[in-house]
Amino acid sequence: MQKKLIFLTLVVLYSFFFQGCQTGSFRFKQPLENEGELYVYVKPFPNEAERLSFKLESISALRSDGSEFKLTLILDKFDFFEIGRQRLIATGILPPGNYAGLRLKASSASLKTEEGERSLFISDVSSQLDFQFQVERTKASMISMSFKYAESVSDKFSFTPFFSVFIPERTIPGLVGYVSNYSDNSIMVFDKKKLEITGVISTEAGPKGMALDNLLKRTYISIYDEDMVFVYDISSNRLINIIRLDIGDNPGEILLSQDGQLLFTANNGSDTVSIVNTGSSLVMEKVQVGDGPNSLLIDNSGRHIYVFNTLSNNISVIDVATRKVSATIPTEQGPLRGQFSREEDKLFVIHESSPYLLVFDTSTLALLRRESIGMGAKFIKVDKRTGFFYIANEYKDEIAIYNPLSFIPMDYILTKGAVNYMTIDGEENNLYLLAPDSKSLVVINIISRKVISEMDISDNPDWITLVGEQ
């Protein structure tokens, strides 16, 4: 594929400079070529297992021809606290073919009793979970497991891990959501009703921005390192089209026009925005903007695209009808992204290298206010229902909630690590957050401001999109 040598060079350099870094650092991997990949999730522990804890020593995939392939354990400790929700426990790159099941080996187990914690006897024989599944070339597969307490614990004396294994039901198009994992070359599919991961899509190198076409049931995903946009069918999660951009474009954020006929890509590598006809998959125009276009914003009329140029400290306004830059707005250092107010009469802009939030009049583009919010603003999201806006800070484990009238934080939502992306599900009234350090997708109810779900994702998550988002 394009730039494969460049990609490998970057991987080597990354390994050289960052070897020995903390465990939470991101890994980079090559896109799949002749292999497939397996992701193994486990359902929450049953209530009857609340006193049990155990550790897995290994988990392997068994091919139908008798071959055994060891998987990488992501999570080896199992107890009621760790498995109180769906968890990703193992992954592995596998040769394609038919598989007959999984093999598990426990290293220790204990049971809390009235007399205290009791160690359980571990058999030398591994558990074999019979379950037929297929691994396809260049594709990711997901299987789910549910722990069986009665079959695993014998007379409160011995322990042999036993799970039922199954393929998760595919999420219906009206409830689907996606998370792009840049360094893992994967897309996690989730169900916004069940609040669980239900599938995994393997991509080429560097999936980043995403856009959803609810009418045609399509998902567009920018492939940053390969200068492409992949188009997937929501119903099947199958790749149905590839939009090819110019070499070196490095498309990041993307967005669709309201009618779905135009796709806009922010090309960080060429300092341009490509305007693509989604019907023909051809680039109609390539508009030169400022340096380092980081993000895009479209107004409700669909007439103007706002391009936030982080390296040239300005915002390019593209007239969609003429396909040209109609205005350039100067900003503070490093404009990252912006959001319109609920009435769309104001534009809020946060910056990478400035502690100030700028407020512009959308009709005149004049600067209205300059408010200090501190260094480190990473993401901003306006709740169109209330008008409040949420700001994530890369240096703080919290989301600040602002009233647009006072520009003073009215409340905070505590998070597990910094947040790099947010979106709002307007149908369920939930706030979705990406927490890269914990590799998790966190869902918070906007009214109660309580965490209602946390889903395990993968390395360097970049974007969330879902049906019904604001």
Structure overview:
The protein starts with a helix and ends with a strand. The strands form 10 sheets. Strands 2, 3, 5, 7, 8 and 10 form a 6-stranded antiparallel sheet that branches. The protein is mainly β and 470 residues long. The chain has 2 helices and 42 strands. It has a domain at 27-166. A hairpin with a 4-residue loop joins strand 20 (228-233) and strand 21 (238-244).
Short description:
By secondary structure, this protein is mostly beta strands.
Average pLDDT across residues? 93
Helical fraction:
under 10%
Q: Kindly, what is the distance between the CA atoms of the first and last residues, rounded to a whole number of angstroms?
A: 36 Å
> Helix/strand-derived class?
mainly beta
Unreliable spans are 1-26
**Structural Rg:** 24 Å
Q: What's the count of strands?
A: 42
The shape is: globular
Main β sheet profile: 6 strands, antiparallel
Task: Work out the strand percent.
Answer: over 45%
Count of helices? 2
